[in-house]
Amino acid sequence: MKKIFLILTISCLIFSCNANEKKEESNNVAQKDSVSDTRIEKLKQAFEKDDYVTFFKLFPDTYSELIDFYGFDDETGKKPLYDFYETHIYYFFKSKEKISFKTFVSKVYKIAKDGVWEADGIGLFQSNLSELIISKPNIFLEILTMKPNKEITSFWHFVFDGSGKYDLQNKEKFETIYNKINTLDKKQGRLLKDEFERMYK
Q1: How far apart, in whole angstroms, are the C-alpha atoms of residue 140 and residue 176?
Q2: How far is it, in rounded angstroms, from Cα 155 to Cα 67?
Q3: Which residue of 6, 61, 172, 180 is surrounded by the most CB atoms within 10 Å?
Q4: Which residues are registered as beta bridge partners of 73?
Q5: What does the alpha-carbon distance between residue 174 and residue 1 come to, in Å, rounded to a whole number?
Q6: Where does the UniProt annotation place the signal sequence (predicted)?
Q7: 3-class DSSP state of 80
Q8: Spatial distance between the Cα atoms of 91 and 43, rounded to a whole number of angstroms
Q9: What does R_g of the chain's alpha carbons equal in angstroms?
Q10: Do 79 and 37 meet the contact criterion of CB atoms below 8 Å apart?
Q11: What distance, in Å, lies between the first and last C-alpha atoms of the chain?
Q12: Of 74 and 3, the one with more pLDDT
């Protein structure tokens, strides 16, 4: 009898612990969603008020946040800011000298380094990034030279991802960016070229 009582007591304790853990996990998810929703609303308001500094601070800091804000999921549909991706991303890349360019490029790098191409907002971000590298390669090199090779490779992967093997536009983009980077830094040029060739050999 004591044995049965002990087993029942232990079972109840385990069930209680599991229930508390699930409740805590659920509360954490809800709290995270609430913070995210508030940030999204404030981001929209900053755009509407043409408050670039606040918009920049609230804009995604990572690739996963960029997806969570502006992406599209085949199963769940549009993310909260999907309908605004075009105006928001163009606005983001027009930094208007309201923040230092190095700060701006650092944020762009942090988003891109873990990214993979997707259509719509992510593709538009990638396109603007490519133009920025072509126009300001020195600033990117300042950041890249401080990073480990694996992270640099991941960055270049995002820059050239999403095209077919024989896509001439992507090949032209590669040649333009490679020539700019390689002229300034042979090591970075080699890392860029190796990753592109690995992706499209």
Answers
A1: 15
A2: 16
A3: 180
A4: 77
A5: 76
A6: 1-19
A7: coil
A8: 12
A9: 23
A10: no
A11: 72
A12: 74
